[in-house]
What does this fold into?
Amino acid sequence: MDAERRFRRFRPDTTALIEKKLPQVERKLLETNVQFAKEQTAIASDLLLQEGSGFFQAEEGDVETFKVTQSAVKQAVDIGSATKSFDLSLSQFGPYRHNYTRNGRNLLLGGRKGHVACLDWLTKQLHCEINVMEDVFDVAFLHQETMFATAQKDWVYVYDNMGIELHCIKQLSRVLRLEFLPYHFLLVAASDRSFLSWLDVSVGQLVAHTHAKLGRLHVMCQNPSNGVVLLGTGKGTVSMWSPGVGSPLATVLCHNRAITSVAVDVGGTYMATASTDGTLKIWDVRKFDFLRVHHLQSGISNLTFSQRGLLAVSTGPVVQVFENVAKTFDAPYLRHRVGRTVTDLSFCPYEDVLGIGHDGGFGSILVPGAGEPNFDALESNPYQTKSQRREGEVKALLEKARDCSNVDFCLTFALTGRLIDDMFGSYGDQQSGRAT
It folds into this structure.
């Protein structure tokens, strides 16, 4: 059953939309085909995908796992894995933001003082390195590693992997955070003037430009399972946005103080929120149910989920990694002191590596069990060739999700497992003050 859940191709929200439009006979046939596909994929996965994730556990009488240092971890692994943990000292250009490609092969770095670099972090081969001579607030890869976007002082710029400027997008001004939705080819930008914008990079058109009226938008993430954008505000609320609707799909009051970071796991099931008072909360996104709370000694600056459900939390110069956060908050799985103030966190896909951006440069640490050991080469292939990359780009364009301005896209957003017909406040009335 676990394999069937991991390899299902239709999500509950999509199935709910199909039930509304298809006749009963066609719906029954579709459900049969979907179930057959899940069963066959699960059987094939048991036979072909034999790799498992490698957590480490402390034996009885030994020290807890969070007391194990990175030097001890590197001594216990092979030479190839040990080289994945490294540090780049770039104190003159920090603090740094970073972004990995979907296949986890390439790394993009952006320093606040204008330094931008793109490299293959496994082989340490530098693709390009430029200085844009102005502030860089965020960076993001687009659909391939050959293009990336930078949120600079005034506008958003697009460069290729040789460092050549391709576009200057003046419709996106004073941007603080960038997110890319790979299945919709949408670049999402949040500005300090409270504007939230979606740009279709395949045609170069602005799909939506919404005034969120939430103040300075410096906390943003996406739900990987459905492409919904989440914004954290200074009032302690988290709002969810889609380009087809000019108002929030839902707004959840999560904390009594300002939100500092928001993260959603890969399956779109759990949401983690952090506040300036050091409070970390876990929510069930499907029902907006509060699950767990954890209090840290200092304010939390960054949150991120791994492919296997580990949650990384940064508090000042310290990074902690927790496991099974939806069930319990015990002692951290790992703890690492960077020595610098952490400004960005993200797990590398398909690798047991956590990337850490800080005011002195960039570093990566080994986190056993963080990455998905088995990858789908038709989805994202870390070992793809140039011809495979080109074919994948064409296929992705042909299979691109339909225009998000269509309101049907928004109707696939499910709350409490059911299709929501009215996205404009009916849910807020039912939550008795928790969601407005």
Notes: The chain has a mean pLDDT of 84.
